[in-house]
Amino acid sequence: MRKVLYPLVFVAAALTGAAAAQTTPGFDQLQRDAAWQDMELARQQALAAQRDAFAAQQRYQAQQTIQALKQTSPYASPPVPGLKPPPLDAQLAADAERIRILQDQQLAASNARILAIRPAIDGPPPKK
Predict the structure, then answer these.
(1) What is the spatial distance between Cα 76 and Cα 72, in angstroms, rounded to a whole number?
(2) Backbone angles phi, psi at 13, to 5 degrees
(3) Which end of the chain offers a freer environment for a tag, N or C, measured as fewer CB atoms within 10 Å?
(4) What secondary structure letter does DSSP report for 1?
(5) What's the rounded Cα separation, in Å, for the pair 108 and 101?
(6) Cα separation of 102 and 109, whole Å?
(7) Where are the alpha helices (DSSP H) in 1-128?
(8) Model confidence over 88-117: pLDDT tens digits?
(9) Terminal-residue alpha carbon distance, the chain
(10) pLDDT for residue 78
(11) Cα torsion at 82, 85, 86, 91 (round to 10°)?
């Protein structure tokens, strides 16, 4: 019995040692992962702080710009009634006029179609 029991104990001890040796690198990997996660969190917090500082600086500069503009022109000039801004280009003005004419023609054609519709009780349309 001892001849069988001693080899089994040695085999069990060897297997236990091998299993323990396998868990140690896993534990080391967990520690490395935890350390990496902590470093990544610190990096993200530092970036967030930089973004907040940049945003605060931009807000401050915008406020200074607005104040400078208010000081240079405290009152806006009122619009002059009947004064239209000059067209940017003669071609642009011609295109705008052509569009207005086309819209008027479309409106007239649409009104003619609407007026051509008669209810059935009125009878046929009058002859011209």
Answers:
(1) 11
(2) -65, -40
(3) C
(4) -
(5) 11
(6) 11
(7) 2-72, 90-116
(8) 677 788 888 899 999 999 999 999 888 888
(9) 130
(10) 61
(11) -110
